Every structure is written in C-alpha cells, then in structure tokens.
C-alpha cells in the first residue's frame, strides 16, 4: 500500500537519509574503531555507547528507506489550482462563529507537525476539508463540540 507524501516531505527524508549515511555512519565507525583501541570491550563505555548509537542510526536508515519506498510523492505545485481542497494544498479557513482564520497544509501522516500548521490527511479537520471548495462551510467535530469553518482560500504552494 502506498502512502501520500508531499514532495517537500520526501525531500526532507532523503536529506536526512543522506546525512545518516554520509556523515553519521562514518563518525560512528570511527568512534567504534577508537573505542576498540582502548582495549577490553566488556567494560568499555565508549564502545558500548557507539554500538548503541550505530543501532539507532541503522534503525532510522531502515525506517526512512521503508517510508520512501511506500510513499506516493505528490507535488501539489504541479497540479492546476481549482479552488478544491486536495492532498498537499494549503487551506485558509475561518471559524464561522468567531471569524478567526487559520491556515493548514494537508500532508501525509509522517509529515504532520501542528506547530508548523501541517495536519495529517487522516485528521478530522483534513477529512472534513478534502474535496470541498473555496466558499464551502464544513463542520468539524472537535473535543469541545462541532465547529463550522468556511474555506476562505486554497493554495497550491
């Protein structure tokens, strides 16, 4: 099964993968070699710490490679804007009651970062917005009840 991912999200993972392979792996290999030279490995804290770090880096490399192999990368900037909310778009919505506006980008689950206003395509608010258009009113079920939002603008950034 393929999972949607924005082009920027895929690029960020590829950059992290490159860093892990070209910078972190050689540093850890060097640290292990230096720790081995210190002698007895049973009580060698530097050696055990380096091996532990190596395990974490290798696990992250496998994780990223798996995510990228299962990703369906979507470049929303290559899709003509229609005013309809789709995966990858940046949506400005206004609370119907308060008029308060907020902007979110709809991204893959792995990319979601609420502080950066990136919400998962599987989140309740994203599910309410997908396939709707500018000017539509959507009802979003929140912990404090149902909130209505008007879709103010849909951008392909």
Automatic annotation (TrEMBL):
**Source organism's superkingdom?**
Bacteria
Q: Does the keyword Protein biosynthesis apply?
A: yes
- Any idea which GO molecular function terms this record carries? DNA binding; RNA polymerase binding; translation elongation factor activity
Function, in words? Necessary for efficient RNA polymerase transcription elongation past template-encoded arresting sites. The arresting sites in DNA have the property of trapping a certain fraction of elongating RNA polymerases that pass through, resulting in locked ternary complexes. Cleavage of the nascent transcript by cleavage factors such as GreA or GreB allows the resumption of elongation from the new 3'terminus. GreA releases sequences of 2 to 3 nucleotides.
Family assignment? Belongs to the GreA/GreB family.
What InterPro entries has UniProt attached to this entry? GreA/GreB_C_sf, TF_GreA/GreB_CS, Tscrpt_elong_fac_GreA, Tscrpt_elong_fac_GreA/B, Tscrpt_elong_fac_GreA/B_C, Tscrpt_elong_fac_GreA/B_fam, Tscrpt_elong_fac_GreA/B_N, Tscrpt_elong_fac_GreA/B_N_sf
Under which name does UniProt file this protein? Transcription elongation factor GreA
Q: What is the lineage of its organism?
A: Bacteria, Pseudomonadati, Pseudomonadota, Gammaproteobacteria, Pseudomonadales
Q: Where is the Transcription elongation factor GreA/GreB N-terminal domain?
A: 4-73
Which PROSITE patterns does this one have? GREAB_1 (PS00829), GREAB_2 (PS00830)
Query: Which NCBIfam families does the record associate with it?
Result: greA, PRK00226.1-2, PRK00226.1-4, PRK00226.1-5
User: Domain Transcription elongation factor GreA/GreB C-terminal, which positions?
Assistant: 81-155
């Amino acid at each position: 099964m393929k999972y949607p991912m924005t082009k920027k999200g895929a690029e960020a993972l590829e950059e992290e993968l490159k860093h892990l392979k070209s910078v972190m792996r050689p540093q850890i290999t060097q640290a292990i070699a230096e720790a081995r030279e210190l002698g007895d490995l049973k009580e060698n804290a530097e050696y055990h710490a380096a091996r532990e770090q190596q395990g974490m880096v290798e696990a992250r490399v496998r994780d990223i490679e798996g995510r990228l192999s299962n990703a369906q990368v979507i470049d929303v900037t290559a899709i003509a804007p229609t005013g309809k909310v789709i995966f990858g778009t940046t949506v400005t919505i206004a609370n119907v009651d308060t008029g308060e506006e907020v902007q979110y980008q709809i991204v893959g689950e792995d990319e979601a970062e609420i502080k950066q206003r990136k919400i998962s395509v599987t989140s309740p608010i994203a599910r309410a917005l997908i396939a709707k258009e500018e000017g539509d009113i959507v009802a979003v079920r929140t912990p404090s009840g149902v909130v209505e939002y008007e879709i103010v603008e849909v951008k392909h950034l």
